[in-house]
């Protein structure tokens, strides 16, 4: 995770964002192996950091695909 406005955020914020992304990717690979994962990171000094991690789950019983959003 690279925060563009590094001077505006405490180091702990970058570390927290990194760990959240790390855990989200681990969970996606564990629960939906081989499925695509979309990740977006936005930051603004007065708004903080916004992470969005989206992955598609494999087909569930009945043939429906599911999608999870983590915020």
TrEMBL record:
Signal peptide segment: none
Segments passing through the bilayer: none
Entry keyword set: Kinase, Transferase
InterPro entries hit by this protein: HATPase_C_sf
Entries under Gene3D superfamilies matching the protein: Histidine kinase-like ATPase, C-terminal domain
Entry's Gene Ontology molecular function annotations: kinase activity
Name the record gives this protein: Sensor histidine kinase
